[in-house]
Design brief:
Layout (H helix, E strand, L loop, with lengths): L3 H20 L7 H6 L6 H12 L2 H14 L5 H16 L1 H6 L5 H9 L2 H34 L5 H51 L19 H18 L4 H7 L5 H18 L3 H10 L10 H9 L3 H36 L7 H22 L5 H25 L5 H25 L8 H7 L2 H18 L8 H9 L10
Helix pairs in contact: 1-9, 1-15, 3-9, 3-11, 3-12, 4-13, 4-17, 5-10, 5-12, 7-8, 7-17, 8-9, 8-15, 8-16, 8-17, 8-18, 9-13, 9-15, 9-16, 10-17, 10-20, 11-15, 14-15, 15-16, 17-18, 17-20, 18-20
C-alpha cells in the first residue's frame, strides 16, 4: 500500500488553501472585509461557501461511519443537518441580515439593549465554536493516520497551522473563496470514487459480497422507546441547532440584503441535498464488503482499497483524502472566523489595533481547541458535532426565534433561557464525553443525557418566555421599532439607523 496519493492530496489541498487565503491580502483591507466581507457576497458564491464550511468532518467521515455501525436510524443526521436550513430560511435568514449585526452577540445586544446578554452570548459562541472545532482536529488526525500512516498529532497540527495562516491573512473575504472551492472539491472527492466503487460492486454481486442485513436498513428496527426518544431528540437538535451555529449565522451577515440571504439559503438546501446522497452509498458498500464497525470513522478512507486493491484503490483513496482534508480546513476556517470575531470585539480590540486584534484572536480561537484535541482521548467525530448542535439548539435557537418574532422578550428572560439551556446541554456534553457514552446505550440515563435536546430546548424556551413575562416592565423601549426594521424589506424606504 502506497501513501503517495494521500500525501500528494494533502499537500495540494493545503497549498491551494494557503494560496487563496493569502491572496485575500490584496482585497481585505478594512475591518468589515475581515468580519463580513463588507456585505458584498452574492447568493451563489455564499451558498457554496456555506456548503464548504458546513460539511465538516462529521459529514464527510462521520455519517458513513454511523450508518455502517447503527444502520438507517443515523440517516436523521444528514436529514436534520439539511432540513435545519429550511427552518433557518423561514424564521431567521432575512431578519437576521437586516439587523446589521456582525455577530450573534451584536444582534443580542442590539435587540435587548443589554451588555449582560451580550457577554453570555459571547461565552456561548466561543464554547460552541471550540466544541465544534474538536472533531475537525480529531478527523484530521484520523485521516492522516489512515492515508499516510502518520502519527495522530500530525493532522491537527497541520490543519491548525493552515487555518491560522489563511484566516489571519485575509479574513472573511478570502475565506469565502476558499470555502466555495472546497465545497466542490469535497463533492467531487466523494462522487467520483463512489461511482467507481458502485461499478465494481455491480460486477461482484454474483459471486462477491453478500447483501446487507434487513434490520440494518430499517429505522427503529429494535430501538423501542429509547430509540424513539433518541430519534426525536436528534431531529430536534439538528433541525433547530443549525440556526444557532456561530459559523453558519455569521455567513448571512455577508449578504447584501435580506432577499439575498433567503436566496442563499435556498441554494444551500440544494447543495447539501446533493452531497448527503453520497455517505449512505459508502455505508452500504462498507456493509456489503465487510468493513469493521470498530473503524467506522475511517470507513470513507479505507473503503476504496478494500473494494479495489492496487493502484486504482490508492488513487481513489487519494481523492477521498483530499476531500476529507478540505472538510477539516473549510469548517475550521469558518469556526475560527466566528470565534475570533467575538473575541476581537469583546477582548482583544480593547488593547490592540483592529487588524492586530483580529489576528491575535484568531490564534487564540485555533490554539485552545487544538491543544484540547491533542490532549483528549479519541471520541466519535459525528457524535461530538451532534452535541454541538444540541448546545446551539438549546441556547441561540430560542434567543433568535423569540428575539425576531416576539416583542415581549426581555434581557432577563434571554439570560435565564441561555443559562438554563446552556447549563443543561453543556452538562450533558461533559457527561457524554467524560463517560464515553454513545448516547444510545442500554440505560435511559445514557440515552437522555447523550441526546439532551428533547428536554433542554423546551426548558430554555420556557425559561425565556416565563421570565420575560415576569419582567415585562423592563422590555426595551425600542423593541417594536427594531422588529419593524427586521421584517421590512430593503426596498421599502425606512430609517434603519
Amino acid at each position: 500500500m502506497t501513501q503517495v496519493p494521500g500525501l500528494v492530496a494533502v499537500v495540494l489541498v493545503s497549498l491551494a488553501t494557503l494560496a487563496i487565503g493569502t491572496w485575500g491580502l490584496r482585497v481585505s483591507r478594512t475591518t468589515s472585509d475581515f468580519f463580513v466581507a463588507s456585505r458584498t457576497v452574492r447568493p451563489g458564491l455564499n451558498a457554496s461557501a456555506i456548503g464548504g464550511e458546513y460539511l465538516s468532518a462529521a459529514s464527510f467521515l462521520g455519517v458513513a461511519g454511523l450508518l455502517l455501525t447503527f444502520g438507517a436510524d443515523m440517516l436523521w443526521y444528514p436529514i436534520g443537518w439539511t432540513a435545519g436550513y429550511l427552518v433557518l430560511l423561514v424564521l431567521v435568514a432575512a431578519p437576521l441580515r437586516r439587523s446589521g449585526a456582525y455577530t450573534l452577540p451584536d444582534f443580542a445586544e442590539a435587540r435587548l439593549d443589554s451588555r449582560r446578554v451580550r457577554h453570555v452570548c459571547s461565552v456561548l459562541v466561543v464554547a460552541i465554536g471550540w466544541l465544534y472545532l474538536l472533531p475537525q482536529f480529531e478527523g484530521a488526525g484520523l485521516t492522516l493516520a489512515a492515508a499516510l500512516d502518520a502519527p495522530r498529532w500530525v493532522g491537527p497540527v497541520v490543519v491548525g497551522l493552515v487555518v491560522l495562516v489563511s484566516v489571519g491573512s485575509g479574513g472573511m473575504r478570502s475565506i469565502t473563496f476558499v470555502q466555495a472551492f472546497q465545497y466542490w472539491l469535497k463533492l467531487t472527492a466523494l462522487l467520483v470514487p463512489a461511482a467507481v466503487l458502485l461499478v465494481v460492486w455491480a460486477g461482484d454481486r454474483v459471486s462477491g459480497p453478500s447483501a446487507t442485513a434487513a434490520d440494518w436498513s430499517v429505522p427503529l428496527a429494535d430501538g423501542g422507546a429509547q430509540g424513539l426518544y433518541t430519534t426525536y431528540s436528534l431531529v430536534l437538535a439538528t433541525f433547530l441547532g443549525t440556526m444557532g451555529l456561530p459559523h453558519v449565522v455569521v455567513r448571512f451577515y455577508t449578504n447584501p440584503d435580506g432577499r439575498a440571504a433567503r436566496r442563499t439559503t435556498l441554494a444551500v438546501l440544494a447543495l447539501l441535498g446533493v452531497f448527503y446522497l453520497l455517505p449512505p452509498v459508502y455505508a452500504a458498500l462498507g456493509r456489503a464488503y465487510g468493513a469493521e464497525p470498530t473503524a467506522s470513522d475511517s470507513l470513507v478512507l479505507e473503503l476504496p482499497r478494500l473494494v479495489v486493491p492496487g493502484l486504482l484503490g490508492d488513487v481513489l483513496t487519494g481523492m477521498v483524502t483530499a476531500g476529507a482534508f478540505a472538510a477539516f480546513l473549510s469548517t475550521s476556517s469558518g469556526l475560527a472566523i466566528a470565534v475570533s470575531g467575538v473575541l476581537t470585539q469583546d477582548v482583544t480590540s480593547k488593547r490592540l489595533p483592529d487588524l492586530t486584534a483580529f489576528r491575535v484572536a484568531t490564534a487564540v480561537a485555533v490554539v485552545v481547541p487544538l491543544t484540547a484535541a491533542l490532549l483528549l482521548p479519541d471520541f466519535g467525530v459525528a457524535r461530538a458535532v451532534g452535541l454541538a448542535f444540541a448546545v446551539a439548539a438549546s441556547t441561540f435557537c430560542p434567543l433568535l426565534v423569540l428575539g425576531i418574532w416576539w416583542r415581549g422578550l426581555t434581557a432577563a428572560g434571554a439570560v435565564a433561557g441561555l443559562l438554563v439551556g446552556g447549563a443543561g446541554s453543556v452538562a450533558a456534553v461533559g457527561w457524554t464525553l467524560a463517560d464515553g457514552s454513545s448516547g444510545w446505550g442500554d440505560g435511559w440515563v445514557d440515552v437522555v443525557v447523550g441526546q439532551p435536546a428533547a428536554w433542554s430546548v423546551p426548558l430554555a424556551l420556557a425559561a425565556m418566555v416565563l421570565v420575560s413575562l415576569a419582567t415585562a416592565a423592563s422590555a426595551p423601549a425600542h423593541a417594536l421599532r427594531f422588529m419593524v426594521r427586521l421584517h421590512t424589506p430593503e426596498t421599502v424606504d425606512l430609517d434603519r439607523s
